[in-house]
Specification:
By secondary structure, the protein is mainly β. It has two helices and 23 strands.
Amino acid sequence: MLPLHGCGDSDNGGLSTVTPRPTPTFTCQVKDGSGRCLCGTAAGGFCFGDCGGLGECAPLGGDPLACFCIEPSITPPSQATPTASVTAPSPTATSTATVADFSGTYDDVATARDGGGAIAEFDGGALEIDANIFESYQLRATPAAGESLVLDGFEISGGDIFITVTGTAALASRGDEQRIDVSLKDQFGSTRTFLLTRPMMGASTSFAGTYVFVLANGPSGCSCPSAATLDLSVDADGKGILGGGTDVDLSAGAAVGSFAPGMCSISPRGRLHCVTTYTTPGRPLAEAITWHGILPSGVRDGSGEMVRGLPIFTSDVISWSSARASP
């Protein structure tokens, strides 16, 4: 922790010796590639930082001592910046209308060929790509000429390392399929590509239902296999909510913890990325749980990984499998 020293006192009456004040502290929890702090916890347990203008510095999983940059939001039209034109049509107005038609969740075909499972969510102004449990991209998408986008934002590596990223994306409709061809380059010169696809009508809603998740060594800390039955709701754009439920020790049959509902992205092929919270008896605060994997399709079991707390590279990775309990 780094001490932050102020000056003067609150009543301008000189230094008080009656009630000593603790030295304020600030802990940085998210930094960009150059080491600048983007988000951290200030004295008193509140979050402080601008997240580089691409998100909100907020408590992770309701824990005021664990602050993180929440995904960027789109500024409502009524809050447009002073430099935005409000009197003349934008030259990209036609392109923007076309871009909005591509909103939804996508599977990455490129990583799927290699056994990976990247999932992306696009809302017309922002693109989020979750490559795996430790690597994600938070990108602002600005319409350019034709059906193309200019991208800028961050790669979040290991949960707390922010690397500046720029790039482009080309939008295309082929038959009954939509695709976004993404090309990225980070501040160190490394490149990354994603080929994102989804059916024109979407298909994520078919994965709504009740699932039994079996955890090889669950987040409770019991060092035991456990299981939780959770409901998943999914809308037409692939945005979902994974419901809450009790985590039960499979050998003893006793409850060892509980999941609270959390937000998810569900791709048309059943790729899943969720952030929920977990409460263990005897621990005062709920902890964030990050899920990544694939849901079962037909008789095939689903599988994936989760981590408790901030998904840094030293986190203990918990394997899970899933089976559909009911539609």
